[in-house]
Each structure stands twice: as C-alpha cells, then as structure tokens.
Amino acid sequence: MTIQFNDETFRDDYSFHNSQWAIDRFPFPFHEDSYMYAVNMEQHRGGPEGSVYEKRFDVDEHYVAEMRDRAMVLADDPLRCQSLPHMTLAGWDLLELIMVSKSEDYPDLFELHRDGDTWRWINKPMGIDDTFTFLDETTLPYGPMEYITRQAQGDFCVLDQRDDNLWMDAGMVTTQADWSLDFDIGMNFFEWHAPVPLAHEKGIFKRALKFLLNIQQGAPARRLNWTMTVNPLLDTSPENYHKWGIQKTTLTPENIGAKQHLRVELQTFFRLPRSNALVFPIRCYLCSFQDLMTKPKWGRRLHRVVRDLPVELATYKGFIDNRPMMLDYLSQFDDGLPTSPGVFPDEENTPPLSS
Amino acid sequence: MSKFDFPPSIKSRPVWGTLEPRPGAAHLFIADAHGAEAILDVATPDLMAKGHIIYIPRGEDFADKLRALNPAQFYEGPSYAAAVSRIRRTLEDAHMGTQVYLSGTEGLMGQAMNEAMQAGIEYAAIQTEHRGSIARRMQCVHCKGITEDVETDPFVCSHCGLNLFVRDHYSRRLAAYQGVRVDAEDHGNVPAPKGIYE
Predict the structure, then answer these.
(1) SS3 of A85, please?
(2) Distance separating alpha carbons of residues B30 and B116, to the nearest angstrom
(3) Is A114 a catalytic residue?
(4) Which pLDDT score, from 0 to 100, does residue A349 have?
(5) How far is A134 from A119, CA to CA, in rounded Å?
(6) Chain A within 8 Å of B11 (Cβ-Cβ)?
(7) Interface ipTM > 0.95
(8) CB proximity A191 to B under 8 Å
(9) What kind and span of H or E run contains B63?
(10) pLDDT tens, position by position, A278-300
(11) How far is Cα of residue B17 from the mean position of the Cα atoms in its chain?
C-alpha cells in the first residue's frame, strides 16, 4: 500500500492524529485483563499482514512528522544523540541494517544501490538522495548512527557486549519515556534499569539479559512496553520534564478522552554483524483513549488493567495522580463482559458495549 | 569519625568498601577531608615506601599526620579542580600493578574513579572507602550543571536555580547523582528541604 504521511505536530498545537488504519493496527500491549512485568520476548520474524510487527522497521503515517520533530529536538539539545568512540563500527552496522531492511521491505519508498563501497541511498518520503562510501565517515553529513536514525522512527540504543553484560554506549534518544541518554550513557544493563521498581526483585532483568546476550545474527527478538502520556508528546524527556510535567495537570473529565494517550513501545533487538553490538530500537506508538475505546475489547481491558495496576507501577509510570480520573472515564467502557485472550481487537467476535 | 551506613539502594548507586593493604608495584592514594583517616588506618611502612598521597584537606587538618607516614610522594591541593591535572598525569604514568586507594567524599571518589578508569587502571585494582560528609555531587538533568556537596533534598541547582529532588540514580561517567525538578507538576510547591538520609 502507499502510505499517506500526516502533516502533524507532537508539540505546541499537538495536531498529531491516528487514521482509522493506524488505530486498527495500534500495538495494544495487554494480552490479558491485568499487567505485571514479564520478559515477554518473542522472535521478531514478521507478523500479521499490515500489523506493526510485519516489517523489520515499521514505517507508518507519522514517519515524516516524527523525523521533523526529531530534528527539532536535536537542534535544541544535541546531547540526545551520542556515541562513545568505540561504537562507530556499530553505527555502520546499524546504518546497513536499516538501509537494507527498509529498501527490501518498502521498495516504493526507499532504495539502496551498492557498488562495492560506494552506496547510494534514496529516501523518497524525506527527499534524500545521498551517495557515500561505506565505512568512511567523512562522506556523510553526520556519524553513521546519527545519519540513519535521523531517518528512522523510534529511539535507538546501541549496546556494546562485553563482560557478560550490555553497555549503553551509543544512542539516538528523542522519544523516550522519561530517561536520559546523556545521563545513562556508559551504564550497564542493570545500572540503566536501576530506577525501575519491582522488576529487579522478580529477576526480570537477569533473565532478560541472559536472553539478550544470546541473540544471534538474523534472529531478532521483540517485546512491548507501555506507559501513559498526556498530549501526544514524543519528547517526554527528563531534560524537558520541567516544561512538560505541568501538562499532566491539564486533564479534565471533558478532555481526557482526547488528551490522555496510551504510549506503547515496540522494542526490538538485532545482533549487528561486524561489531557484535546489539541494537535496541524503541519505537513509540501513541493512541488517545477515545480512539482506543472504539475497540470494545480494548476498552474493557484497559479499564481493568489501569484499575488493578500496583501503586508502585502507576507511580513509576507517572500517572498515579491522574488514575482516579482515568478510571472514571474508562469505567464507562467496561460492562464486565469477558474479553478474548491476546492483544488483537477481535472485532468480529467481540460483543459491542452493552449500555 | 565514625563511618556512615548507607541504606540499601538501587543498582546504579555505588557501593563503597573498606581500604585494605594489597601487594602492588606502587600505591596511589587520593583522598579528601576525612578520607585521610582511611589512609591512616590502612598505611604500613611497606605501602608508604612505594606510596603517593594526593590529599585535598577541605578545611580538615590531617595533612601533617599523612606527611608523617613518610610516603614516597606527598601532595596537598587546595581543591579537586586544582589537583585533577596532577591526578591525571599520575594515573597516566602508573605502571601495571599500581594499586589505587580512594577515600573521603562520594564526589571525590567518583571523580577520581572516573579518571582512573579512563586511564585504563583495572577496576579490580581500585579500592574505595567513604569517610566524612555524606553530601552528594548532583547533576541537574535539565541544565546539566553540577552542584557539589548537596546535603538536602530538595536543593537549588547552583546553575539554573530550579528546585531539584535528589535521586539515587548515579552516573559513573559524570560521577554524579541525578537531580530532577521537584515541582514540575505543581509549580511553586516545593517541600521543605531535609537531610538526604532523613
């Protein structure tokens, strides 16, 4: 299909919106009516046609607007993209992975022509046509990781693997759920996850690390994570928290359906061939409560998940103060009927909301 | 001065040890203020014969006692900033088998540890011992400015003036804890400051 790219913003007037296509394919993260941390990894080898899981790097209607937003974030704060000196080769690995994947998965949008080390990259949605020498940084306008991730939706953490651990040694992070690359760069897997409550005690990170250390080339993995964001703000960074934090207090019973967004991260993990680094793309999808409620199964389930979430998690995810108002809104969409297993909306088999 | 018992915390927070004499080709001691007491406790004539002490008194008067240990080299500096070029040079010149001993405030140990790691000193050859002030070196996540010797939570960023709360999340690269605006969701509602461990 040809994607119609939205002209929209993720700041100021917040003109971001999801089309019916985007709502239908939204990666709703709850496979049952409750939520607790789990490693929940699966192979990233495609998925249902048209779903966000189908391609290696999903491109959707928000692509061009997201890249515009990223450029603005970087102009304000260049430290959102950093790479420690030993990570340049991993940056080239990542550039190759994204260019090859996108040109194969979206041949109408992206083209890669390789003649030895001379590569020509065409990105039609962004109007880019560059020829450069692979592994020669002087032939690109940015370092390889920055160059390609200015053209790819989602944040990218490039993790070095040594001493049986993963190290956050490079990244492009502008659409993050409130963590700072500039602060966390150089940390190991346990250190950068240190502020997460409950999961350490449950052994989640030990098991996740063991899994990730063993990811092989050509066998990527994926999982979902989620949080809540008021307004479709991509840049919920700690750096700017002193500016956006106050937006959480602008919710009212009248505007909550439009303003409150479920924020879902599709996290994928790919082994990189030359560097043996692991790239960890974190792709952010936003959907307003009112759009989610158009799917009866999601409406019933989201109410139950938010209602029953442990206080520590609601606090960590930053919505403990707004939870009562969220529940007032969501409870209107929960008539107590059972829901089917799995994340998909199952509209054919789901009864409508009984009034 | 008695040692402070830090409460258990998250995994990015450093855990400090107790200095012990180890065999080594050379022994580099970097300390500030009450960190001198850890050196006095661990010192032996053998260590001092191959010892280099870099000491920043910060108003404490342990310098003469340290000098009396007869280290092969002794330096007293007025501040960490003044001493850091000397620390770097000493670490650059360090040979295999050099043992590094850091003692005193968290800010001193964190910064010197960072220098040692950058100089390629093996992690296992670096020991630490906290003594003295429990104040923290804090980075403001908003303006990136570092405020030294923070004793209260919340505190005022010495660069941008925002009221910040004191997190336990710690960056070894910055040798600092993270400070985040405390009244971001309710401007002007700043709790009364109290001691970090109170």
Answers:
(1) helix
(2) 11
(3) no
(4) 87
(5) 7
(6) yes
(7) no
(8) yes
(9) helix B63-67
(10) 999 999 999 999 999 999 999 99
(11) 12
